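This section describes the prediction task in plain terms. A model, or a person checking by hand, is given the sequence of a single protein chain and must write out its three-dimensional structure as a string of C-alpha cells. No templates, partner chains or ligands are provided. The sample shown here is typical of the held-out split.
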Amino acid sequence: MKSIEIKGSLRTETGKKATHSLRKENGVPCALYGIQKDENGKPVATHFTVTVEGLRKLVYTPHIYVVDLNIDGKVVNAIMKDIQFHPVTDAILHVDFLQIDEANPIVMEVPVKLEGLAEGVKAGGKLALQMRKLKVKALYNVIPERLVVDVTSLGLGKTIKVGELNYEGLQILNAKEAVVCAVKLTRAARGAQAAANK
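The expected answer:
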C-alpha cells in the first residue's frame, strides 16, 4: 500500500461557530481515532485541521493510502475511515482517520480489478463489474492496493461471487452470495446461442 504525508494542526475549539470559520478559511475539520480508549472502552478522538489542498491527493484518487499524519510535528500512521461531503457543493466537510499499528487488524474497502479475457466475452457476452470495492479485514501491511479477480474462465451468463474469492491474510466481510462480476448475455450472444441450439 502506498503512503502519503498529510500535515495538520490541533484544534482547540470544536463548536459549530469555530467549525464554520475554519471552513471559510479553506480548512477541513478532522478527527483521529486512536488505539487509546476512554474508561468506557470507546476510541478517544484527537481533533485537528487540514487544508482542502492537503487532502486532495488522498480523497480524489482511486488508490488507497496509509497516511503519515503529521499533527503539529507528531507523526502517526492512519487510514481514512470516513469522509463527509456537502450534498450540494461536494466540498469536503469532515474526515475521520483511524490510527493503525502492526498488531491490530483494520477494516477498509479495497478496489477490485478484473484481469483476463473471459470465455463469455469471447462468445459475445459483456463483462460487468458489480462491486467496485470489497470490504476486507487484515493487518494493514498485508492489504494490497487492489484485489485482482481472474475472469478468464468465466462463461456466458456466469458470475463470480464473494464466497469464491480467497486472498492470503485477508478476511472479506461482504456477503458471500454478493456478485462481484458477471458476463451478461448481449442480444447478439443470445441470437448466437439460440442458433447454436437449433
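For orientation: Residues 187-197 form the longest helix (11 residues).
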